[in-house]
Design a protein that fits this description.
Largest sheet: 2 strands, antiparallel
Strand order of the largest sheet: 1-2
Number of strands: 2
Helix content: 55-70%
Structural class: mainly alpha
Number of helices: 8
Distance between the termini: 40 Å
Amino acid sequence: MGVHAIFDLLASLTSLTLTAIVYRWRLQSAMQRVEQAGFGYAVALLIGAAVGGYAFGTLNLCLSGNFQVARSIVGALAGAIIGVETFKSWRGMRGSTGIIFVPAFCATVVVGRWGCFLTGLSDETYGTPTSLPWGVDFGDGVLRHPVQLYESFAMLAFLVVTLVLLARRNTWFMANGFYAMVLFYAVQRFAWEFLKPYAPILGPLNLFHLVCAGLIAYALVMLGKPHERTSP
């Protein structure tokens, strides 16, 4: 089993464990709303995440001249949102159902990005060259931005804030936490994309910039709507 696969497994175990803990601690009612949505909700979530992850990941590499299958967590997030929002619209469901997934997503990024970092150049997630003292040589003699760790540390900070707000039963966060997470993730990911060597497709922007811009717009629209508070 490769390094990346090991960290993918660790990320899955960490996210599942954290979700179980937070569920018992604060978010039982949120999970009940997901369960009430039925089996179709889970299908829409999983299919959306799989299609989005592989479609955007593969397309991004192809646009950069690297024709291989790849998956992307930002693509998976976008696909999952499209799948779930489509399902909710079809079922006439209102309100946010995503708060239960916030700790899991954060943990997945925090742990999983270390797998990307340790895999090195073959993972295709390395940064552009830098002269900064924390630049990392992935084996080709070039010091590069460790963008994988930038993303890991950023989402670790958001995870800590999430747990603090859940502990305080923050009313706003209980209702809007998922959209806040999407906004934060998309903004920080948008910034890191300028430090990656992916091919631009619109001025200086690459495919993931555009995906992040869509996620930012989605989050801002949803944050502007009133949402029912999830009871702890």
